């Protein structure tokens, strides 16, 4: 049996690092940073890590809202969505994640687009 994406991304420790780096990029990305001005960075990191861990086959630590509920009414644009995916790719590259895993992560996230953009 092949390893889950969770295992291939470094399990909880690796994914927590990825999520932390990703939040740091998001809050400094001029396209999407305004979305995070009133947010606690540590809370964002914890939620992103738990969501990412659960979504990649790890322990079910995520108890937050689903993507549609989280983004409903935010009117997130295509530009913001692409900026987010760009940050994800940069973060995965920074953390030396292999091409196959990068593609899997981006595939999963792109699949959530209808629950995020203009909802």
From TrEMBL:
It comes from the Bacteria. The keyword Heme applies. Its cofactor is heme. InterPro entries: Globin-like_sf (IPR009050), Globin/Proto (IPR012292), Globin_bac-like_CS (IPR019795), Hemoglobin_trunc (IPR001486). Pfam families: Bac_globin. Keywords: Heme, Iron, Metal-binding, Transport. This is Group 1 truncated hemoglobin. It comes from Sessilibacter corallicola.
């Amino acid at each position: 049996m092949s390893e889950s994406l969770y295992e291939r991304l470094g399990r909880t420790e690796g994914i927590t690092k990825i999520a932390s780096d990703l939040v740091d990029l998001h809050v400094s990305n001029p396209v999407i940073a305004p979305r995070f001005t009133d947010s606690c960075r540590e809370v964002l990191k914890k939620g992103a890590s738990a969501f990412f861990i659960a979504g990649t086959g790890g322990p079910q630590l995520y108890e937050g809202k689903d993507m549609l509920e989280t983004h409903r009414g935010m009117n997130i644009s295509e530009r913001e969505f692409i900026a987010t995916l760009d940050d994800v790719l940069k973060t995965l590259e920074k953390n030396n994640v292999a091409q196959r895993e990068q593609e899997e992560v981006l595939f999963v996230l792109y699949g959530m687009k209808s629950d995020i953009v203009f909802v």
